[in-house]
Design a protein that fits this description.
homotrimer, 319 residues, alpha/beta, Rossmann fold, 12 helices, 14% strand
Chain lengths: 319, 319, 319
């Protein structure tokens, strides 16, 4: 349902099921926006007169800001909303909210929700002139984050066909990891590893097309890219990890552990960083880190995706 | 005081006391904005360089959003403010807030307040270059809502002179009902009914020019339009209605009760809907419902009123 | 560090250390923006395509609104952020926030913080394309407020060289007073007085180049300008002043006390006013008051400073 009947990208809900060509189109279009951030005047009129609604049922100032900046650089008008989700309403009030917004002739909803499937549910109900972008839904997917991650990898490594990538941290709860794994696989990465304590690995994780490791040094051995995940302390409550110090000792990214990887390894993190918890400060700020490149690229990639679902020429499915 | 000395509409505070010509002008101008929402580029430069302040002492994301979208489509800059109203300040702090904003050369205040008369009080104190629109004040008035309602009725029924309209629900506390009654009367609707339990009808309600009914089936008999009001549970505290179930049985709009009305009856509601409380879901989503049309029209009507109080040529009083 | 190596004003953090020419340039540029607020279309394209971030670690709707209006009149895109400052993070999380924002190619940060030195700390770490304006940091400085104050004085008194100015109130805790004193001294005001109870005067206050008074009548004797400070009740907790009534009796500005000043004295206040606490209502609204002029001028002065740090031709240091 992310493509329309003529194969055009209509919504951007999840990486799963997208064609390789679509991902490459997004990355190529994002590249044209990259130089853009350094120009004197950073606006293009691609979405002029369009209304973008940041519909964040789950609060996330950081992600919302990146979409707000991206939309404004495309000359859209932006409305920020943080509606309360009534737990009792069986999804009805969410759909009523959405129906009201679309009746106002708004054009693009960027949806964030603590529940998996929210963006998908909304996309099923909107009329054909409204596009939906998933900005994170529960444990399910965070596809724009994954796209900026693969953009950053391609920027530095040029292609995926020889890469070994390790994703480290709370794989079990991470919508980011899930989307990254799909994107890396679709783009032809031969080896994707996940590194975590057993309690933070999904059962049968191999089915996702990854190689699990519980020993971090072995997991990082000869990798080209390390993607650290943010430890969501608020979601774990001490039951899944023994202590922060022990977690850092075993799975925190230090220079020492990083020495296992290739000499030109990239260190990535979706942010915000917990310094000294999942990553040591000197690694986060060190020569291998491309963490701030990810932030820069995030604007360009989101501009690219917004332009595409709003009717850009790119993003067509294979005929 | 809503007109200036040359008969131009200067503020939009209440329907009461407005001339029929003014209402018709607003509706006609709104019509020119309607096609507009479907255009590729939805902006006109009518308020370019103007600053619109959404001054919401009472929070209402929904209403605020409609004004924000309307103002941005007119190319205005929009500032959203939710100042706290100090209960002890005898209105002084409100006026200090307003004086500060007008000193910043802002042009239009959209005022929402839980107290009746707030917009009126502010309008009395602003200099001639500042216009005020009432976005709901206590139990007193919600005139832009009433204008979008009569716009929606005119859109479907073309004229008012043969209509029978029933307003159902908490008439006593409803600023919406009060404004609707004035608008319908000024536009020449021959029969306006109000339907509610006795406890939710104002005393001597006939003075407003309406026919009261406590029996809903009798109240809906042969009407052309049913306007349901939202049950403001938070304002009633169980003392005025016996129970939600009993209320729905007696005054909830069901297909069964709706069968009393004319076959081409319109069902309206200002939103947000309490499904299963004042209206059954199948009626809200059914073929008679124009509830989402109301939302669409709300943008056009608010654009029309904003353009008019900011110096549009229309809206002059009879010479 | 407020100037770059070629003497251009790069950040605006504190009045201290700025050259007289810089202050005069800011005031002259602001004058060109003053007529501007009264024009039909109040926008100039000076910051078109630039992204201004209002980074308010300490909440202040009032100050934020003035910067938002100023930035929008310069055609910038504005992002409002109220990040939480983690007290435990030794400034690191603040810098991570800032690094993320600059990675998004934002151009100007307007920083407000309850801690002295925040804007300075951030300015030390940003790359050369990012400019910082201090919108108030702890007890240290509020330089844009001081600039709008001296602008208002110049507007009415034309020059500083013959003026006697009294600043009255909580000098000890006031970042506003500190910045005003520096600005008045740099612009050549021969006599600046501070008037306060001993408990609200810094030790060795004379070192700032001011004359302290604890008796208000003597302090106001023959002054040309009285600047009242806002009593920050929340910062004092009853220990520094005996009671509100006693404070008003001794240091509240009344017509009676004001009679000590010159007949054409100006009464100023940074707002918001505590009527009946530090100033009587009839004085605040009286013929000597230029309090609302200060608000109007605040927009023009902030536009001037924003334009200047973003690369305006003005603001160069003496060669």
């Amino acid at each position: 349902m992310q493509y329309d009947s003529s194969g055009r990208l209509r919504h951007f809900l999840t990486i799963e099921g997208l064609e390789r060509e679509t991902l490459v189109h997004i990355l190529d279009t994002a590249e044209t926006f990259i130089s853009f951030g350094e120009r004197e005047i950073k606006k293009v009129p691609i979405l002029r007169g369009k209304t973008v609604v940041n519909l964040f049922f789950e609060n996330s100032t950081r992600t919302r800001t990146t979409f707000e900046i991206a939309a404004k650089r495309l000359s859209a008008d932006v409305i920020n909303l943080n509606p309360t989700r009534l737990s009792t309403s069986k999804g009805e009030s969410v759909l009523d909210t959405v129906r009201n917004l679309e009746a106002m002739h708004t054009d693009l909803f960027v949806v964030r929700d603590a529940h998996s499937g929210a963006a998908y549910l909304i996309a099923q109900h909107v009329p054909s002139h409204v596009a939906i972008i998933n900005a994170g839904d529960g444990r399910h997917a965070h596809p724009t984050q994954a796209m900026l991650d693969v953009f950053t990898i391609r920027q530095h490594k040029h292609e995926f066909k020889n890469l070994r990538v390790a994703i480290v941290g709370d794989i079990l709860h991470s919508r980011v990891a899930r989307s990254q794994i799909h994107a890396l696989n679709i783009l032809g990465t031969p080896e994707v590893r996940v590194v975590a304590p057993k309690t933070l690995l999904p059962t049968e994780v191999e089915r996702l097309g990854v190689h699990p490791y519980t020993d971090m040094r072995r997991g990082l051995k000869d990798v080209d890219v390390v993607i650290m995940l943010r430890l969501q302390l608020e979601r774990m409550q001490g039951t899944l990890i023994a202590s922060e110090q022990e977690y850092f000792n075993l799975y925190g990214l230090t220079e020492d552990k990083l020495a296992q990887a290739k000499p030109d390894v990239l260190v990535m993190h979706p942010g915000p960083i917990n310094r000294g918890l999942e990553i040591a400060s000197d690694v986060a700020d060190g020569p291998h880190s491309v963490i701030l490149d990810q932030v820069t690229n995030g604007i360009a990639v989101r501009m690219s995706i917004m332009a595409m679902v709003m009717g850009g020429q790119a993003g067509r499915k294979k005929a």
